[in-house]
Amino acid sequence: MLVYPLYASVQAIESPGKEDDEQWLAYWILYSFLTLMEMVAEPILYWLPIWYPVKLVFVAWLVLPQFRGAAFIYERFVREQLQKYGVSGGRRPAKVIIDVTTFLYPLPYPKAAPVCVTRGTRVIMCCRRRKPTERNRKEMETH
């Protein structure tokens, strides 16, 4: 899943055309996102025996130049979301969509610092971490 995309990406960089560059940049964006989501959803995917064959077919569809699946998904879905949240056009993201670690695994520390996003010296957004659960409160009392 990685050898051909690496080779094709190097070929795309060295070619004078821009179309193949977009295909392989879109592939790496989507493959990174798929890998991230797979890491987060691993406990669920473990129980789905069909996941790995589906992933193999999906990644093959993204990679194969006959289908140009990565460019298709990027043009149809990803670009629209990036423009909606103000990420495209060389601008920095103005919004934090999710802080995965604090959303999935609440910290047992009641005085945890908020997560803040800054642009230069200006604070754009701060998010408070989730409140400790009852189990985390009991753990804090024992420490």
TrEMBL record:
Its main location: membrane. The keyword Transit peptide does not apply. It holds the Pfam family TB2_DP1_HVA22. InterPro entries: TB2_DP1_HVA22. It is found in: Membrane. One of its GO terms (cellular component) is membrane. The chain crosses the membrane at residues 54-74. Belongs to the DP1 family. This is HVA22-like protein. It comes from Colocasia esculenta.
